[in-house]
Design a protein that fits this description.
heterodimer; A: mainly alpha; Formate dehydrogenase/DMSO reductase fold; two-stranded antiparallel sheet; 14 helices; 4 strands; B: Alpha-Beta Plaits; three-stranded mixed sheet; two-stranded antiparallel ribbon; 7 helices; 13 strands; about 20% helix; binds iron/sulfur cluster
Chain lengths: ~425, ~230
């Protein structure tokens, strides 16, 4: 890649012509996915493979995935101020951008999961304050605003100079220095306000699941802290990945220190995550109740391939990123991050499988010598060849579900690419 | 008033009459069952279970347990699920946004979802032309909330209403009046003189998954083992 020496901050457009291709591709996928959603709207959620026994699937897993990666932005920007990590400072804009985009993605994913999107305003008109879902809507909307502001205040100085951007007419009457100063102060403030909100979106999203005593797999206080650990790991990895693209090969060495630090944060967060996983499995397993035996047989039997993906890939990334070799080249960093994303996605899917396929109404029948008998659940759909009641639902997403779940991926890619094309996200080369 | 039900497992013969009357009186779309009856311990209904030479068979009807501490109501983000002044947990078909959080939350798996438009579903499964079933008109609670309609909207959750259309007029739920074995007893748990209260005083009873603290208002009288 032939990268001209930048004397002034420039949008990525001039340095990476492929960005147009990325934009086009993500726009196409976005349209395809919207089309599939349109079809789902006309037919109902019957086009998915979710049914009564397995009522949340790929959509909610994908939603949780995007909530997770949305953390990185503010964690990176806030740690710059909190821990004086000056090395990371040049990356705070990219960080905020990827956080804002991921939050948009999470919000977009939740919409096709709703059976009645036309009644979405009921969330505002009749909110039930006891519902963790309402708390989540509130914190995620707040986070979206905060990350947007974070991007905005950081871009203002450049916008003032170039006359681009939006919401910036008021800057005309100020001097560039004033705006520079404003941007500096408010970047810091927004990052500080944002950090607790970032922590909250994971806590509350985890609480949607953790509060439910009906599902043994969710009902643990370790879920919220573990969500945070996974979010720090995957969110930071996203910031790293986007930054690697923005920085490009030519300027990699300039930011090598920052990348090595990010890799360390990812590795460290994963250590915490695996600690939680270990403790959780131990507590679930030690007592050895029929319920936990059921969960273990789902984890290490039926769903072993997905579960091992969730354990092994991030496990590898953890070790890899803590070595010098793993954290020192763009290739190894990309490799480790991609493995991590696949692992974390598997982790989000595994939120669903053992929760739904361990039937809550499972009874012990002493006289019959049976410790756990699951009461059959009505499928909800009458189809030839399909039983009316089941005790296991072999859920795999339908083609429509997969295409619709591409929506946030396309949206996030599109928003990030568009922003990078239009505005400068990397400061001038120093020195 | 706290409406509740007692189900005498000694009397239940597992005939599933209640399942069928429930379905037809409440116009449940194809594939949706508010009220199930199964044979504990067995994969097939009406098949005995147990060890060689010591087989036994009893039946367990399960519909909404009308929890006093109802997780489905607490999770519902828009208050579509609510408990009325008689202690009956209901769903407002016009308010539900179809998030299905309640289905994940209910420990008894009684909640059903309208995955497709019931009209289309009826056409697809090939019910005879003109075959309509269920209480024919919509029912609203005193606040005007739609808690029953023979034509269910697509994309909403539903479940047992204790036959609101009948019990709001002081009549019995369909499962109770149709049970040929008189296994189901319905009444006010707050009224000490009611048949349900008397039975609960005189006989030993249990509730499903009591350890979860959902405080169901459906009680079971255990079967005598034969
Ligand atoms: S049984 Fe399920 S649907 Fe009925 S009140 Fe209890 S939690 Fe709600
Ligand atoms: S599916 Fe409907 S009734 Fe159930 S929690 Fe969501 S809005 Fe409430
Ligand atoms: S109708 Fe009565 S006897 Fe028949 S299955 Fe239902 S409760 Fe049991």
């Amino acid at each position: 890649m032939n990268v001209p020496l930048a004397t002034k901050p420039r949008p990525l457009q001039e340095t990476a012509p492929q960005i147009n291709r990325v934009l086009l591709l993500s726009a196409l996928v976005l349209l395809l996915s919207l089309g599939a959603w349109g079809y789902q709207l006309s037919q109902g959620l019957i086009v998915t493979n979710m049914r009564n026994p397995f009522s949340w699937g790929l959509y909610i897993a994908t939603f949780a995935f995007f909530v997770g990666i949305a953390a990185g932005g503010l964690i990176v920007s806030s740690s710059v101020y909190l821990f004086n990590l000056e090395k990371l400072k040049p990356l705070t804009r990219v960080a905020s951008l990827s956080a804002f985009a991921s939050t948009l993605g999470a919000g977009a994913m939740i919409l096709p999961d709703m059976g009645r999107i036309d009644r979405i305003l009921n969330l505002i008109l009749h909110p039930n304050l006891r519902s963790p879902l309402v708390w989540d809507v509130a914190v995620i909307s707040t986070y979206m605003v905060v990350t947007f502001l974070s991007v905005y205040v950081q871009l203002l100085p450049e916008w003032r100079e170039s006359g681009r951007g939006f919401f910036n007419t008021w800057t005309k009457s100020r001097t560039p220095e004033e705006i520079q100063h404003f941007s500096k102060i408010w970047s810091r403030r927004v990052a500080m306000v944002g950090l607790p909100v970032a922590v909250l979106i994971h806590t509350v999203t985890a609480l949607i699941f953790a509060t439910q005593a009906s599902r043994g797999w969710w009902n643990t206080a370790i879920l919220p802290p573990d969500f945070i650990a996974v979010a720090v790991a995957s969110g930071t990895a996203l910031v790293m990945l986007v930054s690697l693209v923005v920085v490009g090969k030519a300027r990699f060495t300039e930011f090598q220190g920052a990348f090595a630090l990010l890799a360390k944060i990812v590795g460290g967060a994963l250590i915490v995550h695996f600690f939680f996983v270990g403790v959780d499995l131990l507590v679930h397993g030690w007592w050895g109740s029929p319920e936990s035996q059921e969960i273990f047989s789902l984890l290490f039997g039926t769903y072993a391939p997905v579960y091992l993906t969730e354990l092994l890939l991030p496990g590898f990334t953890m070790l890899f990123f803590l070595t010098k070799k793993g954290s020192s080249t763009a290739k190894t960093l990309i490799f480790g991050s991609v493995l991590l994303f696949i692992g974390v996605f598997a982790h989000r899917l595994m939120l669903m499988f053992p929760a739904f396929n361990a039937i809550p109404l499972t009874l012990s029948l002493p006289g019959i010598g049976m410790e756990s008998w699951a009461y059959p659940i009505s499928v909800g759909v009458l189809r030839p060849g399909l039983p009316s009641f089941v005790t296991f639902w072999a859920y795999t997403p339908s083609v429509f579900e997969v295409v619709i779940a591409l929506l946030p991926f396309a949206l996030v890619t599109f928003v990030i690419a568009l922003a990078l094309k239009l505005y400068p996200f990397l400061p001038v080369r120093r020195g | 008033m706290r409406l509740g039900m007692v189900i005498d497992l000694d009397k239940c013969i597992g005939c599933r009459t209640c399942t069928v009357t429930c379905k037809s009186h409440n116009a449940q779309p194809p594939g949706i069952w508010w009220n199930r009856v199964f044979t504990p311990g067995s994969d097939f209904h009406q098949a005995a279970s147990g060890q060689e030479g010591h087989l036994q068979m009893s039946f367990l009807p399960v519909s909404c347990q009308m929890c006093d501490n109802a997780p489905c109501e607490k999770v519902c983000p828009v208050g579509a699920t609510y408990t009325d002044e008689r202690g009956v947990v209901l769903v407002d078909y016009e308010r539900c946004i179809g998030c299905r959080y309640c289905i994940a939350a209910c420990p008894y798996n009684v909640r059903q979802f309208n995955w497709e438009d019931p009209k289309k579903a009826k056409e697809r499964v090939g019910y005879e032309k003109g075959y309509e079933y269920g209480y024919p008109v919509e029912i609203r609670d005193p606040d005007g909330r739609l808690i029953y309609t023979p034509n269910r909207p697509v994309g909403v959750a539903e479940k047992c209403t204790f036959c609101f259309q009948y019990t709001s007029k002081g009549e019995l739920p369909a499962c109770v009046s149709s049970c040929p074995s008189k296994a189901r007893i319905f009444g006010d748990l707050d009224d000490q003189e009611s048949e349900v209260s008397t039975l609960l005083r005189d006989r030993s009873s249990f509730r499903l998954k009591e350890e979860l603290g959902t405080q169901p208002k459906v009680y079971y009288l255990p079967p005598n083992k034969q």
